[in-house]
Amino acid sequence: MKLGVFLTLFRSYTLEEALVIVSKRGIKTVEIATGGYVGNHHLKPAEILGNQEKIDEVKNLLKKYDIEISALSCHGNPLHPNEEIATEHHEDFKNTVLLAKELGVDTVVNFSGCPGESETSQRPVWITCPWPTDFSEIVQWQWEEKVIPYWIEMGKFTREHGIKVAVEPHPGFVVYNTETLLELRKVAGDNIGANFDPSHLFWQQMDPVEGIVKLDQIIYHFHAKDTVINKRNTEINGVLDTKTYRDIANRSWVFRTVGYGHGEDTWKGIISALRMVGYHGAISIEHEDGLMSIEEGFEKAVSFLENILITDDAGEMYWA
């Protein structure tokens, strides 16, 4: 495992400026955004694809700072009922796969997507309970009419190009937990795996260690991000919370920098579980902490994870 960072944290900098910042902190691998909701501030596939000179520029820049790309990420909703958004995110996905191949990157991170409730929908519809039976019927329609056909197609496309897809389980999309990820993999193929992000699991009352053990060899990428659960707000209102993330005091849960939601013992358990199942990829820091600046959140995350991970001469990170 190598300590890395989702480079979209430093979206206000050029690619080289961002690489300078993270390399000074000992980061050896970066995840780079290429479209979807996360944008493409550092790599724009449409401008680079098929241009060997630009591809070489990117490779040489990475070599200059002794950094590898762990994954290209285009977190989007290619199943969006708005055709314009769906088309844009689908093209981002396809172009990211093609760019990954040209750059020699083997993993692309994405969401599963979420359709509407029918052909006339204008917005995605995420179902959280089975009754009234309308809800169960919507879930069945979404998977049979939208999810399965799309992901069979994209599973085949990504396999043809030798790319693994790390789908991030995320509430709001049809893949949001362990069993929905496994269901998608069953229909789309064995190059579909997980981008494992504990922060989206904590508030659902899931145990990341158990999830890691269950998913085993199909964890293709990992996000280091934490969640703190407000005990009182949760006891009053439960964990389903649509208030803005900025309303930190009143929400049932909020995202935090690693170590500020769960302590070292929890994160040591997560890292050791990853090692136990044979994960050798990036521990990619993602920052969405509303109480810290980007720079502070990044620095604290690196320091926290350095206390848990040990680096040998080859740059490999092991559980302490």
Automatic annotation (TrEMBL):
Entry annotated with the keyword Isomerase: yes
Coiled coil start-end: none
One Pfam short name: AP_endonuc_2
InterPro entries associated with the record: IolE/XylAMocC-like, Xyl_isomerase-like_sf, Xyl_isomerase-like_TIM-brl
Tagged with keyword Isomerase: yes
Matching SUPFAM superfamilies: Xylose isomerase-like (SSF51658)
UniProt keywords, alphabetically: Isomerase
Gene Ontology molecular function: isomerase activity
Residues annotated as domain Xylose isomerase-like TIM barrel: 22-307
Xref: PANTHER family: HYDROXYPYRUVATE ISOMERASE, XYLOSE ISOMERASE-LIKE TIM BARREL DOMAIN-CONTAINING PROTEIN
Name of the protein in question: Sugar phosphate isomerase/epimerase
